[in-house]
Automatic annotation (TrEMBL):
Xref: InterPro entries: CysQ/Inositol_MonoPase, Inositol_monophosphatase-like
Domain of life of the organism encoding this protein: Bacteria
Protein's name in the database: 3'(2'),5'-bisphosphate nucleotidase CysQ
Naturally occurring in which organism (per UniProt): Erythrobacter ani
Length: 249
């Protein structure tokens, strides 16, 4: 069945199932805290990697929880997966964690699905299911890390008369912009490709601006999967945000 699905439907299907698995692990009452996070990561990763290798055997695979096979760099199509984005939040049994299933084609985040199982009823946003976004508020809301807000976001929120909103995982933040709960997600503290591939694919499909904070494109399936920074925002804010970031240097 999965072999007959489009890439986007496959991503959404697998993210949904992984989310259910993670809720079952969480609700088992066997684990808590960091141990729960580790158990969830391992369990969801095993499912996602087995499923993708079965459904798309000719594609490459990069997962946060899997030993990296550098042979993927010679492949055009590479699935980039984060079984639990926001392991800390998941372990704390919060709602702001996510499951990422993304597909890089030619180095671009082309297809993706982000599951938010911790929300009431759970939701999955995908690159092939685009809905209209609510109108932005007058004072832009900047999504920042719970513990390490990006200094650029703090400075820009002050300059633009905006508001800082703290949230857990990168996927939860990116989807908050997609869902109209905020206008700008600017991160400069360093991430990895699995933190943003699926969220960027979904955000771009919804018409959001996605780039590095210097305005350059985000490239995926690199030999070193580290990504220093990220900007996802409403298009109306992109030029001003990029100009202000450049002025901080």
């Amino acid at each position: 069945m999965t072999g007959q699905m489009t890439d986007a439907r496959l991503a959404a299907h697998l993210a949904t199932i992984a989310g259910r698995i993670l809720l079952d692990v969480r609700d088992s009452a066997v684990f808590e805290g960091k141990v729960l996070g580790n158990a969830g990561d391992a369990t969801a990763n095993e499912f996602l990697c087995h499923a993708l290798r079965h459904a798309r055997p000719d594609d490459g695979l990069l997962s946060e929880e899997e030993k990296d096979d550098i042979a993927r760099c010679a492949m055009d199509r590479v699935w980039i997966v984060d079984p639990v984005d926001g392991t800390r939040e998941y372990g704390e049994q919060r709602s702001d964690w996510a499951v990422h299933v993304g597909l890089s084609i030619g180095g671009v985040a082309a297809v993706g699905a982000v599951a938010l199982p911790g929300l009431d009823g759970g939701i999955v946003l995908s690159s092939d299911q685009v809905s209209a976004m609510p109108e932005p508020v007058k004072k832009p809301r900047f999504l920042v890390s719970r513990s390490r807000p990006a200094k650029e976001a703090v400075a820009l929120a002050k300059a633009m008369g905006g508001q800082l909103v703290s949230m857990g995982s990168a996927g939860a933040k990116a989807m908050a912009v997609v869902r109209g709960e905020a206008e700008i997600y600017l991160h400069s503290g360093g991430q990895y490709e699995w933190d943003s591939c699926a969220p960027v694919a979904v955000a771009a499909a919804h018409g959001l601006h996605c780039s590095r904070i210097d305005g350059s494109p985000i490239r995926y399936n690199m030999a070193d999967p580290y990504l220093p920074d990220l900007l996802i925002c409403r298009p109306a804010y992109a030029e001003r945000v990029l100009d202000l970031v450049a002025s901080l240097d």
